[in-house]
Amino acid sequence: MQVRIYRPAKTAMQSGKGNTKAWVLEYEPAARKDADPLMGWLGSDDTTQQVRIKFDSQEEAVAYAKRKGLDFQVFAEAVKKPVGGKNYSDNFRFDKLEFGRF
């Protein structure tokens, strides 16, 4: 079975870095999802799509995948560029230059 190992990124809906410290091992979908004829919900017979295993380090996740004989692919975490040292209060400075006013 194919699995992917990655470190989840921070979601846009949170300001902190809550669930971004652990490495996650997820199974690739083996079957497509079909719509239920009665309710219209999407579902699949593949239950491995529900499995997410968290590890403290990338090495632990890779060792687990090797021990279980899984084909794995490791996705490197994205490098974040630091945003400049600008504060919100800089927008209201009295000494900043304004274009259009002379």
From TrEMBL:
Keywords for the protein's UniProt record, in alphabetical order: Electron transport, Membrane, Oxidoreductase, Respiratory chain, Transit peptide, Transport
Tagged with keyword Electron transport: yes
Transit peptide recorded as keyword: yes
A GO biological-process term: electron transport chain
Cellular component, GO, one term: membrane
InterPro entries from the UniProt entry: NADH_UbQ_FeS_4_mit-like, NDUFS4-like_sf
Compartment(s) of residence: Membrane
GO molecular function, one term: oxidoreductase activity
EC assignment: 1.6.5.3, 1.6.99.3
Chief place of localization: membrane
PANTHER family hit by this protein: NADH DEHYDROGENASE [UBIQUINONE] IRON-SULFUR PROTEIN 4, MITOCHONDRIAL, NADH-UBIQUINONE OXIDOREDUCTASE
Protein name stated in the entry: ETC complex I subunit conserved region protein
Organism: Magnetospirillum gryphiswaldense (strain DSM 6361 / JCM 21280 / NBRC 15271 / MSR-1)
Lineage: Bacteria, Pseudomonadati, Pseudomonadota, Alphaproteobacteria, Rhodospirillales
